């Protein structure tokens, strides 16, 4: 009998669980796991966690302290189940504040240390704004690994690679969403998917110019997008799509392969060039802003939950 698609994918791509659900992580045995405010909120709403969350909330100095304590506690539990990285996000509220991002990232690493989880196991997730990328450059020089998220454009990817970030997360499905809204009758299947095309371009640029930054496709809408990116460094996949891949048999072809590196990397972008290229890319500008708003919407829900628990 042919191997299932998930087993085959794991031979060519590092599979990352896009969830804070411990049972899903146990079942699918990913190498890494990534979280965001939406996934932390889902985990925090589980009834079995309520008493512990209430304890955290009551002992926290303020809501920000409680938020980070919850994220690190869940991240520490996840780290015990996987051999690789756990991604933990700096508040989306700080997406345009380099100094505040730096302070929050360092605080998260210290919290993980108190849970016995070293910095080599953590990726600090930061939105790929100009300010976030500047913060990531500094953190990487301090030995703190970063995951630049909400990445929709080639300009963002280039800036991240120039900054030496550990990993970038291009959002495949959200790119597709935007293009489908603009042209609902177009064929965006398979290789025509603009999100897939974006990841391939980034992957080929990084490998072709010798950048060490890991490319991790994220935000998938269907298994076909994952199949089209087989061979990418990493893919972060929801439990629903992991289940579908695990239940599907057939051959899986490697679609992305590293290229020989060029002798000379391109010139780094300056801030003006970055902002101009983002301004010219309506999809990236709109989806980055929307993504920050959505993460903040779920963070506010989590803040409200923790505030309620503090008062109990």
From TrEMBL:
The keyword Transmembrane helix does not apply. The active site is at residue 125. SUPFAM superfamilies: Aldolase. One of its GO terms (cellular component) is cytosol. One of its GO terms (molecular function) is transaldolase activity. Pfam families: TAL_FSA. It catalyses: D-sedoheptulose 7-phosphate + D-glyceraldehyde 3-phosphate = D-erythrose 4-phosphate + beta-D-fructose 6-phosphate. InterPro entries: Aldolase_TIM (IPR013785), TAL/FSA (IPR001585), Transaldolase_1 (IPR004730), Transaldolase_AS (IPR018225). Its main location: cytoplasm. Pathway: Carbohydrate degradation; pentose phosphate pathway; D-glyceraldehyde 3-phosphate and beta-D-fructose 6-phosphate from D-ribose 5-phosphate and D-xylulose 5-phosphate (non-oxidative stage): step 2/3. Its EC number is 2.2.1.2. Keywords: Cytoplasm, Pentose shunt, Schiff base, Transferase. GO terms for biological process: carbohydrate metabolic process; pentose-phosphate shunt. It comes from the Bacteria. PANTHER family: TRANSALDOLASE (PTHR10683:SF18). HAMAP family: Transaldolase_1. Transaldolase is important for the balance of metabolites in the pentose-phosphate pathway. Belongs to the transaldolase family. Type 1 subfamily. This is Transaldolase. It comes from Halomonas ventosae.
